[in-house]
Amino acid sequence: MEVGLQGSETTTPGRKSQSAVTGSARKVKDNAADWHNLILKWDRLNDEGSTMANKIVNLGFNKSSQKEMQVMMAGQDTSASSNSENAFENSRELEEECDKLLSVVDKMTHIVSKMEKLVSFEKGIIDLETFQYGTGGRQTPLFQTWPTSQFADVSNKLYEAYKQELTLKRAILQELAHTTNPDLSMVYLSCWLYQPYTDDRAKLLLEGLLLETGHRPI
């Protein structure tokens, strides 16, 4: 399914019309749309997760402060009950936010699994063309200028980038609620939000893929 992409059937020089795209070209074009949609879903989950991660850090600091307060007030029964209730409520809320962030990471894991299938699919197209045309492959490009192997190469690079990012997300998930160092917590939050492995190079790869397959106007 194509979301927010070029859907015109008008033909420009060097580009097949939408209705003329069949066979391997149709499948590659659909894959490009799938990449676009999966990355949109990932970005939405990243924003949701960033909000949850910030809450976890703030709740973790509150929990640490309440423990210090309980130690200081240990000999004063007047506020012991109130402090215990606050600590219990804080711990419950912290656990809920951690569960929510775990759900986000699980959804991201599912997205990366779908990305891996797209890579396998592209490699399958190469194998098919090798069988049809020999080791040299197809002589004419499917779309503009890219050889078929470049689609598989771009897909693999995108997959590797998001797989590394997922590994980082999992590490942050494991450590975030247990970190009492404010500076380290800020590093975790920054890494979650800005995603060092899916940088501008990954965005350029995706845009190049969408341009080549006609999803973006040239």
UniProtKB/TrEMBL annotation:
InterPro entries: Cyclin-dep_Kinase_2_interact (IPR023250). Residues 7-22 have a biased composition (Polar residues). Residues 1-27 are annotated as: Disordered. It comes from the Eukaryota. This is Cyclin-dependent kinase 2-interacting protein. It comes from Oncorhynchus tshawytscha (Chinook salmon).
